[in-house]
Amino acid sequence: MNFQKSNHEMPAGLRMALTENLEALNQFTAMPSAAQDSFIIGAKQVSSKQEMRSYVKNLTQAE
Fold it and tell me: How far apart are CA 2 and CA 58, in angstroms?
């Protein structure tokens, strides 16, 4: 799995949180590239490990 995006480098905390939550990882990889970029930009605003886990968990609670 390539976690390096062309336009936005994925923060290490986001990579870690996604690998800990396979359902969220699957949701993320199924997203269009523009949506992934937007999600990565949002992740850069997260300031703690717990917030990042919550941010990633939100992927599995959409819809």
Answer: 21
Q: Which of 3, 35, 7, 30 is nearest to 16 (CA)?
A: 3
Locate 21 and state its tokens: 């939550």
Going by C-beta distance under 8 Å and a sequence separation of 6 or more, which residues neighbour residue 13? 43, 46, 49, 52
Domains of the chain by residue range: 12-61
pTM of the model: 0.83
User: pLDDT tens digits for 5-41?
Assistant: 544 588 999 999 999 999 999 999 999 999 999 999 9
Cα separation values, 16 from 28, 54, 56, 63, Å: 13, 13, 10, 24
The length of the chain is 63
What are the tokens at 14?
Answer: 């986001």
